[in-house]
Specification:
elongated; 2 domains; 3-stranded antiparallel β-sheet; Arc Repressor Mutant, subunit A; mainly alpha; Diphtheria Toxin Repressor, domain 2; 7% strand
Length: 122
C-alpha cells in the first residue's frame, strides 16, 4: 500500500497527537504541523475520501484501521531510525529531523534489517 509522503506525515501526526491528547481535531493537526487551517481542511477531506480517517460530528478525527496501520508503521520507522542515530552520537533534534526524511524512502527490506539490528544490539 503506497501513499504520498504528505499523507503519511498527516497520519503519523494524528497518531502521535491521539496518543498524547486522546482526541484530535483539525486545529490540533494545524498547530502541530504549522500549517493553515485551510491546508489541513483540504488534507483531511482527502484522507477521509481515501478512507484513512473518519470524523465525528464534533470534528474529532479518528484513524481507520487502514490509517492506523500506515501511521503506526511510519511512527515505528521514525522512532527506530532516530534511536539508532542518537546512539551513533547524532543530537536528538537532528536525529528526529533526519529520521523523518529517511522513514518515507527506506525500503521495507532495509528497514526490517535495521530494526533487527536495533533489537539485537541496542
Amino acid at each position: 500500500m503506497k501513499i504520498k509522503e504528505s499523507a503519511e506525515n498527516y497520519l503519523e501526526t494524528i497518531f502521535i497527537l491521539s496518543k498524547k491528547m486522546g482526541s484530535v481535531r483539525s486545529i490540533d493537526v494545524a498547530n502541530e504541523m504549522n500549517f493553515t487551517k485551510a491546508s489541513i481542511s483540504v488534507a483531511m477531506k482527502r484522507l477521509r475520501e481515501d478512507e484513512y480517517i473518519s470524523m465525528n460530528a464534533d470534528g474529532t478525527i479518528i484513524l481507520t484501521e487502514k490509517g492506523k496501520e500506515i501511521a503506526s508503521m511510519v511512527y515505528e520507522r521514525h522512532s527506530v531510525i532516530a534511536k539508532i542515530l542518537i546512539s551513533l552520537g547524532v543530537s536528538e533534534e537532528t536525529a528526529y529531523e533526519d529520521s523523518c526524511k529517511i522513514e518515507h524512502d527506506l525500503s521495507h527490506e532495509s528497514f526490517q534489517k535495521i530494526k533487527e539490528y536495533y533489537e539485537k544490539n541496542m
